[in-house]
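Sat 14:20. Reprocessing the chain from the morning session after the first attempt stalled halfway. Input below, unchanged.
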Amino acid sequence: MKHFTDSLILFLVACLCLSACSGSDDVTYGEGSSDCYISAFTLGQLRRTVHTTSSTGQDSTYMISFSGSLYPTVIDQRQQTITNAEPLPMNTRVSAVVVTVTAQGTVVYAPTPITETTEWKAYATTDSIDFTTPVAFRVYANDGKGTYRQYTASLNLRQEEAGSFAWHQETTLSELAGRTQVKLLNFNEQLVVFSTDADGRLHCNGQPWADLSCTGAEGCELNTLQVFDEQLWMTTQEGALLTSVDGIDWIVVPQGVDRPLHLLAATELALYACTPTTEEGTSWRHLYSIDGTEWYPIGMEASERFTACLASVSYMQDNGNVRILMAAPPTEAADTTLYVWSLLEMLDDAWISFTNQPLNAYQLPLRTPLSIVSYNGWLVALMPDVALISYDNGITWKKNSYLTIPDAVANAGGIKAAASLGEYIWTLAGDHLWRVRYANYGK
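Finished this time. Tokens:
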């Protein structure tokens, strides 16, 4: 019985070896090993073309080298395929690639598809191989019978630069033509566009896109529009606080503030506003509310107090803290930069100012209209013809050579409003809705 079992095991092993190397159906084994497979496939030094634009607008094109070993390949022995798991950077030159192939057997290769006239070349570690189309690699066993296993090797390339921003026009909202003010926002994970017509009446465009007239929002200040507690909130020119559950029907919120209220920002926990302490508006105080009716004072780090807000954004930091950033117009007519204020929410902190720091050469310029969004862990300020990114919570604002405003957007009147939703920044230029995505979003 033991002799029969040993014979059966040897027979099964022989069958497995035969199926592993498939030169033909009638392969027989002679002298030498019947093993034939690729165990490792490593890319050598690679080159790619890089295009950059300096802060002065100067374009440059040059080649750089990098190690292909940073992009490991995956060998699927069952499907007999070889490819790189992470795509190579855009504009990588794959027409001349040196690879190191570790195999059991003799390796030859040829471009695909394979035909009767295909010429196979013996592999050498110094060969420069063209991977613009897939390449077939055969590993012949050393059994002298022509037994081989064939793999198809291909290289994946990114279709976008790793640090690039890709723009796409989503749709045209012809109803927005001629509107005096527009605001785009993320309301309960949907894009909503609000606008005012020449008579100051509020309109709402939601998905599916349809222009709807709003009621109860006469005299509204559209730039104060905020999302809080799954509702929409804004103040009027007279200082009344309005709210709406759908953006169509608006009601006045009774509250105990005896002066006009000007809404500034909102988070998931609170609304933020300011109100004059005198009828002449010569001094102001800043408040917050968790329900829109009762308001409580909040401190200010500096003696200056902002009385208006051009743009605001709330966002969560990596440590879980919620921070609010506001950009206010300057108090001096000659100033060319905005006043930027920041608040760490619900930690008994006061508003702090990031403005008028002599050593800061990268302050937020005075450009309108202005939208600020939180995106990919950054703050992005979008103005009609320029975009700036802050990587340090709003202290400095710098250009990114990849984030430029396309000519089509600029020619449509430039960016009028923006909001972030999911992996995209959405923008309005004229009556065109665009989306822009960072190629390495989330990484």
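The chain is about 5% helix and 40% strand.
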